[in-house]
TrEMBL record:
It comes from Aphanomyces astaci (Crayfish plague agent). SUPFAM superfamilies: FAD-binding/transporter-associated domain-like. PROSITE patterns: FAD_PCMH. Pfam families: FAD_binding_4 (PF01565). Residues 31-192 form the FAD-binding PCMH-type domain. This is FAD-binding PCMH-type domain-containing protein. Residues 1-20 form the signal peptide.
Length: 230
């Protein structure tokens, strides 16, 4: 992917902004903040404008993380109005940062395609899930491994396209928001697949006795099998 750096005119766009008294919390309400400015851009230019105008800015996804990574008293950007599919072809899909994973899954499934890996839930936004390192299931690589391109907004409002070979690309795929605000993400996709879950219980002694055989049958690498119990 060819990398480019460009400045996009920061034109006035429709945003939802509230000064003072605003409230944000994560999914279990254990992380709460009251940003002075809350912006919900609907375009790339709006996202650039919000980032450039802020002295301190955090970007929130679906609030699924239990960490305080989003908390701020300054400017909070939420992406619930920034969810479109930008491009789709035989190998990749490009979506705006606020699109939920389940909406990506539905779009791909309608075309007989899927992301190579998924986590246990899909309510997260694509940017939130990848920026915080959601790992997914199995040994196919985490969700961020499937990013093949992305647009990032730097603090000065510059929109930068990153791809393989760019100095920042690998760091930006799981950037925790420190390199800039994610604008779009391009993922590779694969033919639609299904997963079967088989759940059973065994006495611990029986499991320990037959551990190697069970792992061989389930094709689970040794390092990815865990036992829960007292």
């Amino acid at each position: 992917m060819k990398c480019r750096v460009s400045m996009v005119a920061l034109v006035a766009v429709a945003v939802a902004a509230t000064n003072g008294g605003d409230f944000w919390s994560n999914w279990d309400t254990r992380q709460v903040c009251h940003p002075r400015v809350h912006v919900s851009p609907s375009t790339a230019a709006g996202l650039q404008r919000a980032v450039q105008a802020a002295s301190h800015v955090r970007v929130a996804g679906a609030g699924h993380s239990f960490s305080p990574i989003v908390l701020t008293e300054h400017t909070l950007v939420t992406l619930d109005k920034y969810t479109d599919v930008v491009a789709f072809d035989a190998d990749t899909i490009t979506v705006q940062a606020g699109r939920p994973l389940y909406a990506v899954n539905d779009y791909l499934a309608a075309h007989g395609r899927a992301l190579p890996n998924l986590g246990a839930v899909a309510i997260q936004t694509v940017a939130g899930a990848t920026q915080t390192g959601t790992h997914g299931t199995g040994n196919t690589g985490c969700l961020s491994d499937n990013i093949v391109g992305m647009d990032l907004v730097f603090a000065n409002g510059t929109l930068v396209n990153l791809g393989p070979g760019h100095d920042l690309f690998d760091a930006a795929r799981v950037g925790m928001g420190v390199l800039g605000a994610v604008s779009t993400l391009t993922f590779r996709h694969v033919p639609l697949w299904t997963m079967e879950e088989i759940t059973f219980t065994l006495p611990l002694a029986t499991f320990q006795l037959h551990r190697a055989a069970l792992l061989a049958v389930s094709a689970i690498p040794q390092g990815q099998f865990s036992v829960l119990g007292s």
